[in-house]
Amino acid sequence: MNAVKTERGRRAPAVLEGLLAAYPDADCELVHRNPFELLIATILSAQTTDKAVNLASPKLFAAYPDARALAAAAPADVEPYISSIGLFRNKAKMIVGAAQGLVERHGGEVPADRAALERLPGVGRKTASVVLSTAFNVPALAVDTHVARLAGRLGLSTAADPRAIEDDLTAGLPDERWGFVSHALILHGRRVCAARAPRCGECSLAGACPSAKKPRRG
Asked: In percent, how much of the chain has pLDDT > 70?
């Protein structure tokens, strides 16, 4: 186990260096103007694409520009604004509930505190990590499907549980880079290291990736 951890520790800086070279400006791709919009957009992004959320969110935020406005809405009134997004009925209930939690517990403001965020409806660890790192520059590493897949391929984690993957990644990286690494891995997963057909021949991380050295079918 110690040898495995040592190898991961050596590989992590090389992966970070490759990500910085390939995606120096990597950031959250959810369009937002403030922590409230980021929180709501991140809740909406579950099991759908950032692109779909970005298409729907301008009209949603024009109608409900802050937590107090959204908290006063009925979920049924919110649904038409997000009907193009998967699971929109359930998500309408969650974002209204999250807004009500912000108003009731935090004066309508988004707290820069993980525990407080995770007590809001629709907010789990991943969403809280996105908000903390992006809106407040608090060290946090969000693990989505791209991050989980690439962590395994890059030999940075053998875990299946998102929290365990997060722990493996953060152990080998400086905390001021946790948010960047999450965003950069997501971009890399979308653009190069696809789930079914990773383009290893054009991968900036190939030198640090044990999976790139293995022949792939197709």
From this structure: 93
Crossing angle of helices 125-135 and 35-44, rounded to 10°: 150
Catalytic residue among 126, 161, 168, 213, which? 126
For the question of residue 51 being annotated catalytic, the response is: no
* Burial of 106 from C-beta contacts in 10 A (0-12 / 13-18 / 19+): middle
Tens of pLDDT along 74-111?
Answer: 999 999 999 999 899 999 999 999 999 999 999 999 99
Separation between Cα atoms, residue 53 and residue 28, nearest integer Å: 13
> Is 126 labeled as catalytic in the residue annotation?
yes
Q: Give alpha helix (H) positions in the chain.
A: 2-22, 35-44, 50-63, 67-71, 75-78, 88-106, 114-118, 125-135, 145-153, 162-171, 178-191
How far is it, in rounded angstroms, from Cα 43 to Cα 214?
37
The one catalytic residue in 144, 161, 167, 214 is 144
Residue 77 CA to residue 74 CA, distance in Å, equals: 5
